[in-house]
Amino acid sequence: MSKITIKCSSCHEPHGIEVYNSVNVGQDPDMKEKVRSGALFLWECPHCGRPNLALYPFLYHDPDRKLMIWLLPAGSVSDAQIKAVSAQLDALEGYTFRRVADVGSLIEKISIFDADLDDRIVEMAKYVTAMELAGKAPDKSSEILDAPFKFFKMDGADNEITLTYPSGGQMQGVNIGFNVYEDCRGIIQRNKALTEVTGFATVDRAWVNTIIR
Ligand SMILES: [Zn+2]
């Protein structure tokens, strides 16, 4: 753990908080729920009582899933530092490494991997779903195409996947069949650039766009 000083988003008073630089949820399973709920990143300002979200570099390690997700807020670490760390990863065989820039994306990634899904395929499924929804609603198509779709859950006997996205100031949910996921798996497997993901890779819409557009 380390101590950082951050300013309240409401009253701007500085406050020192203890933060975890990393958690190993294999050794410390209780921490997993705190990460997934976002509680680990919340702190309450002692001056005005406002709950704040603290954003700092944080490594999530799930040894059972061989998964490492590095939460790196924009500008917190240089590309050279990331490369240096990534170069040491070969020893960790069979691991998946991901990099995200915000707490919401970290939580989403954990949900995807905990559902035994491949996040590259989920990103492709989000893209395909956005295209389809945009096609059905021409008046809102650009809003839908720019919307940040998130994986919410997979459930039921048919493994139905629920995605969420903001539209018209509200959160919308859209359910997609597992066949969409399977189709997207095919797209990924046919595309070498999409399968070769190395180091702490960012797998998001921008990543899909580099290949598709
Ligand atoms: Zn405050």
Describe this structure in words.
The structure is a single chain. The protein has 213 residues and is α+β, with helices and mostly antiparallel strands. The protein folds into two domains: 2-114, no CATH class; 119-212, no CATH class. 37% of the residues lie in helices and 27% in strands. It contains eight helices and eleven strands. Strands 3-6-7-8 form a four-stranded mixed β-sheet, with helices on one face. The protein has a three-stranded antiparallel β-sheet with strand order 9-10-11. Strand 9 and strand 10 form a beta hairpin. Helix 4 crosses helix 6 (178-190). The termini are far apart. Bound molecules: zinc ion. Zinc ion binds at residues 8, 10-11, 13, 45, 47-48, 50.
Q: Short description, anyone?
A:
The chain has 213 residues and is an alpha+beta fold. It folds into two domains: 113 residues, no CATH class; 94 residues, no CATH class. 37% of the residues lie in helices and 27% in strands.
Bound molecules: zinc ion
Widest beta sheet: strand line-up: 3-6-7-8
- Annotation, overall tally of beta strands: 11
Low-confidence stretches: none
Q: Which sequence of SSEs, written as H and E, runs from N to C?
A: EEEHEEEEHEHHHEEEHHH
**Which percent bin holds the helix content?**
25-40%
Shape: globular
Strand content is 25-35%
Distance from first to last alpha carbon: 42 Å
Number of domains: 2
Contiguous helical run count: 8
Characteristic terms for this protein:
37% helix; alpha+beta; 213 residues; 8 helices; 2 domains; binds zinc ion; 3-stranded antiparallel β-sheet; 11 strands
